[in-house]
# Entry
Amino acid sequence: QVQLVESGGGLVQPGGSLRLSCAASGRISSIYSMGWYRQAPGKEREWVAVIISGGNTNYADSVKGRFTISRDNVKNTVYLQMDSLKPEDTAVYYCHFEMIPRGYNYWGQGTQVTVSS
# Structure
């Protein structure tokens, strides 16, 4: 089994920055992708960003240019640097790992990000 533990959420003013972390532990084989999703109150969970095993990254249009996803393969950890935060970025953020063989998906417990003055 694989466990994902997130950290780094909190309250920040508009225009501010936060860095989320998600560390995996347990029976980790090869990781295909690491990513982030978010869910705002009353809305469905939406994809935010992903980094694939080869290093390619992709972002939702709503965060492109403001958020940066990165990873530490030794620590089995993925990060989400969030800059120029907006109130509409307020949500619970979840990390997601897909293992190899593909189809094995794991989720973090979620961390609250609140952007408000």
Notes: The mean pLDDT is 95. The radius of gyration is 14 Å. The first strand starts at residue 2 and ends at 7.
